[in-house]
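Design a sequence for this backbone.
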């Protein structure tokens, strides 16, 4: 299974820095084993490519997948720890794809090497959805009317968000922040019961 190494986003590094991220000199925001490469607004709109290890993957149902040869991510770039970003960002929780056909887009992502982990729909989920993993990255495929398959946004895990709601909290960055892609920040997943070390 090819692993994701980075997402290319049509944003300027300064816009992410203003939100408490720490882009490096190459315009990358390192988040655990993944990176967001900030290619500038001239690169398009939103997430313009998902970069996978290995050979160029082509497109999956119109979603741009690229091989790692086009990546500027260097070995060891995923070693950034929780203190690397002033806002406490530590990882990408998932990327969101909107599509007019969950099944068709999911099949295309699986054909490109992704591992489908789950699918469902209402009332369990807010829409017909599937979850496809590429290494550390989960791609959430959500069926929604209105246009071809497209990367819609990212959810980033942070170590702390001031009390917004009890339990796992999520914060959506408003469009006024000037980002070209939808971005949400989320607290870590709770540990499974019994996984904590016992003294």
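Sequence:
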């Amino acid at each position: 299974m090819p692993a994701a190494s980075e997402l290319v986003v049509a944003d300027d590094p300064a816009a992410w820095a203003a939100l408490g991220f720490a882009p490096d000199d190459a315009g990358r925001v390192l988040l655990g084993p993944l990176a967001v490469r900030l290619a500038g607004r001239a690169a398009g709109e939103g997430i313009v490519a998902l970069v996978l290890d290995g050979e160029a993957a082509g497109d999956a149902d119109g979603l741009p997948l690229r091989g790692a040869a086009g990546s500027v991510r260097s070995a060891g770039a995923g070693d950034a720890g929780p203190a690397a970003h002033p806002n406490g960002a530590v990882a990408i929780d998932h990327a969101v794809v909107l599509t007019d056909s969950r099944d068709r887009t999911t099949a295309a992502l699986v054909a490109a090497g992704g591992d489908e982990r789950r699918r469902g729909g209402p009332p369990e989920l807010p829409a017909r959805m599937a979850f496809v993993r590429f290494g550390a990255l989960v791609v959430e495929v959500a069926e929604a009317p209105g246009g071809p398959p497209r990367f819609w946004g990212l959810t980033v895990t942070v170590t702390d968000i001031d009390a917004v709601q009890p339990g796992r909290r999520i914060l959506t960055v408003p469009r006024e922040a000037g980002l070209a892609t939808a971005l949400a920040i989320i607290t870590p997943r709770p540990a499974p019961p019994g996984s904590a070390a016992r003294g």
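The radius of gyration is 17 Å.
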